[in-house]
Structures are given as C-alpha cells and as structure tokens.
Write a structure and sequence with these properties.
The complex is a heterodimer. Chain A is about 0% helix and about 50% strand. By secondary structure, chain A is mostly beta strands. In chain A, strands 2, 4, 5, 6, 9, 10 and 11 form a seven-stranded mixed β-sheet that branches. Chain B is mainly β. Helix content of chain B is about 0%, strand content about 55%. In chain B, about 30% of the residues are buried. The chains are: A mainly beta, B mainly beta.
Chain lengths: ~110, ~110
Amino acid sequence: ETGVTQSPTHLIKTRGQQVTLRCSSQSGHNTVSWYQQALGQGPQFIFQYYREEENGRGNFPPRFSGLQFPNYSSELNVNALELDDSALYLCASSGAQDTQYFGPGTRLTVL
Amino acid sequence: AQKVTQAQTEISVVEKEDVTLDCVYETRDTTYYLFWYKQPPSGELVFLIRRNSFDEQNEISGRYSWNFQKSTSSFNFTITASQVVDSAVYFCALSEAPTDKLIFGTGTRLQVFP
C-alpha cells in the first residue's frame, strides 16, 4: 500500500510569487486535507477536498486555493506569497470520516 | 469554540524513565474523536491513536498507553520505559464535524537522553 506523497520536498520563493504544491493520496482514500505548520506551532487546517469538491475551509485568505483530481490527488496553490507563508505544508488523506494519514510535507521558504 | 491545550512545551527524561504527556480539550460536540500524532525531526506526522468520545476505555499498545477521561476533558499519553527513538514532538488533536478537520495543540517536545 502506497502512503501519502508530497512534492516538492523543499521550495524557495520570493514575495509576490505564486506556488503550487502537490499531494498524492493513499490508495483507497477519497479525501485530502491540507494544513500549514509554522515553526514551533501545531498544524492549522487550510481546507479539505472530498470527491473533487471543497468540503470545508479554515481561516485562510482566498489566495490559498486548491484542486482535487479524479484520482484523488490534490494541489495547493498560493498566490501573492507573503513572508508569513513560510511554513511546512502538510497533506493528509483519509477515507470518509476516517483517520487522516499525513505525507512528509513541503517546506516553503518565502524570501 | 473547540480547543486543544498541551501545557507542557518541552520534557526531558533519561532513557528508561516513564513519561506522561498531558492533553486537555474543549468541545461542545457530544460526538468527537481525539488523536495523538508523533512528529520526528523529519517532519512527517505519524498517527499513533484515535479514540471516539463514547469509548473511555484506556488503551495500551506496547510501551504506549492512553488515559481518556471525559469528566476532566483529558486524553493523556504515557510512554513506559522511554527510549532515545521516542524523541520527537507529540501532538494531541481533536476532530471537528462535519469535515473531521483536525484541531491541534501546540505540541510537546520530548527529549530522551541516553
């Protein structure tokens, strides 16, 4: 069984740029959730996708957007990057109302 | 509002000591789930346990045990005979319906010294 994978592992961008992060869900899972983890903090929920539709959103501005594809993989897009967007971005996949299993994360640095 | 509090920021122990990580939660829901995840230096969150609000039975898995008490809204995690490989940040989390989004505490960094 393949676990959750994320790409890229690390990314460096400058303020104002746009970034796309990718996540492949675990086999058999149809739900993907994205979290932002700032240094020294717990992860914060960004949004969740279920069967290609957004299924809930945390307290993040509209410049954070996402997609889920028919194979249940997902993308997180962030426009107009700000310095505070520097964080570890974690993707988790799950079956319906089931335990979320996390990928290794993408560490984004905004300069 | 739902909230998870992990009051212990950092704990240091010597190998073979027992250690308990505290977790207190707040929720108005009658049905909810509680979780513990481990985050080693690599960054990946590793699932340890999920417990639903109707099951207050304590659980033991090897050196790990969990004590769930609804009366005090606590879900504490004990590692018996700690090992250096247990060194990590441990997060307690609460799931919120209907999306089951996870609300995390701020984590407890555990350092186990040889």
